[in-house]
Amino acid sequence: MLQMNKLVPELLVTDLQRSLTFYRDTLGFQVEYERPEQLFAFLSFHGSQLMLEQDDEEDSAWRVGPLQAPFGRGMNLSIECPDIHRLAAALAQAGIALRREIQECWYRQDERLRGQLNLLVQDPDGYLLRFNQNIGARSLVEG
Fold it and tell me: What pTM value is reported for the model?
């Protein structure tokens, strides 16, 4: 039985099949279950989860304003990835441009620095995805 995370984003999309092609076929997400009659799919990726639902363009409590491309302005989804170079190659193979190439970043967490390789890509509706691969930790003060 699927164990759901305590926080699972649900993205309204314009075309569920196009989004599934991107998330499943290009990025490697797994479809955990679908409700085709509602144009809905629940996806997972190495412990991360998200839901996709095709917008029905009717009044809904789920949509707080008009959907205008790019969707999701002002937020990004940070998704842990075991092999960011392989993911970047799959995106290149599919002809999908990265918003930002792989970049090494170090973030302070209390008295430690946590390292990540990050890349940014937008999904077909413009949602910003930040894939990151852990590259370790080090002391804030070396020496």
Answer: 0.92
